[in-house]
Specification:
Structural class: mainly alpha
Helix content: over 70%
Shape: elongated
Number of strands: 0
Order of helices and strands: HHHHHHHHHHH
Amino acid sequence: MSDPVNQKSNQASNPKRPYRSAKRAEAAEATRARIREAAARLFTEKGYTGTRMKEVAALAGVGERTLYDAFPTKAALFGHTLGVTLAGDEEPVAVPERPETLAIREEPDPERAIGRTVDQMTGLLERAGDLIMVTVEAAGADPDMRASADAGAEATYGVHLALTTALQERGALRPGLDAGTAADTLYALASPHTHQLLRRHRGWTRDAYRAWLRRVLVTELLGPH
């Protein structure tokens, strides 16, 4: 038999629980953001192998136990940091499956499709290019980084090939160019390596890099109009 007194008491206390849960979730999100910011900075400055978990905890202003509770290993921390930085948020949807990525290959105007690809890739590389290069640089010495670098490269190439295949099916690629070679071209020109060379080593502005990439991709993939 139910207890009406206890029912009333529970009902009175229930409205407070969502508020407390929301506050806890906000606090946890803020903590993860501080950890990501600290991790991204240290991984970029010191490399993967040179970064210690205790340094991340100190820079983020959290205890080591808090850090390890959230990310049991350095590989887990790096994977989370890179994944969120790539996507721009914590939504559990990979970049290749995001609506904005899928919409690009449905874009009927070939030049606009390339322009939207360049905008997306520029934004992604501005956010995460330095971290992607950390995986590349550490791949030879660490199997986790090798796996991360290989998976990232495969996913990126898959996105490029899906676009160039759509362009080929519409007859938009320049004469003599097939979807695979077009994807290879896009993969090389829009790579984090090229972005690193031009933006970090040569000091190009973001706008200059984006304009160059769009211009050269339109020329290489679509040919003269």
